[in-house]
Amino acid sequence: MRILLVDDNKTNLIFLTKLVEKLPGCIAVPFGHPVDVLTAMPALDFDIAIVDFQMPDYNGVELLTEIMHFDKYKMKPVVFVTADGDTAVRMAALNAGAIDFLTKPVQPLEFQARIRNLVALVDAQNKLADKAAWLREEVDKAVLELRAREEEIIDRLAIAASYKDAETAKHTKRVGCYSEAIAISYGLKPEYCSDIRLASPMHDIGKVAIPDAVLLKKGKLTEQEFAAMQRHTIAGCDILRESNSSLLQLAAEIAGSHHERWDGQGYPFRLSGDAIPLSGRIVALADNFDALTTARPYKEAWSVERTVEHIRERSGSQFDPRCVEAFLEAMPSILKIMLENLEQPALDSQGDETSVPETIYYREAI
Asked: How much is the average pLDDT of 143-153?
């Protein structure tokens, strides 16, 4: 235990130093001038301070006030040594942060008894602080383990969904990464951006509830089949929303809202504008971009340039304008993600929009 001693009287300082050194486990840190103490800060380390009240340049209260400007010393116990019995002096010392007083001339037995008790108190506080730090570490580890389980659950669900629709696996991964890139450009907190990357691959989990005859149909869907396909949003939300996991709750929000439109013409609830969860607005962009730029057996891929123009034109109608701005800002990151996760070389369709099979709007965009 390091005991700071501050006294401008050399004889008193030597006396106090010897008393401290007689206490088991205690090391004296003596200073003969308050200015030297301040000069040594904040590198100076001590556990308890014993400060004389009457000193040149800085009296004890003034010195303690300066010491307390450093956060690392704010919880350190300070004892004043004074021959002044004036109540005003003692109140000033207490208000400055002192916890006890020793009256001059210092009695060795009293000094050692009080400091021994104070050392025991500080030692107990240190052990308690160490235990609190240990508990925080254990809680942090438990949270990380829980998070890892949540992420594994999402990965397992994504794998399960891919058994129903083989085109889903890489699509969901890209949508997750695209969504994170858009969220970052939007200016959202890093934790949320990471969460949206992890949760958004579940956006189409509800397709496990769609009959295979509809989900895997190669041709254009009938109106009844299209209505059945739209129900995957509600099914996905129902699958995920009862979870206590905040990550799965976010996934449920995305599953239920990523086909809503800014103008209120989407589904399942025809929400519009800011009534649509931000997560759903972001994933809607990421999902559409991937759908249009990816080749499928029933359609060719659009070029990136054409897809970007398509999305830009629908800013304010299908898509949130602010999300479109974030999407455009994130294009360098999105292109990098796209190149790292290609399924096959993209086919650049140079024809008119009518040359792209109509099923694109009934398949990837639903």
From this structure: 82
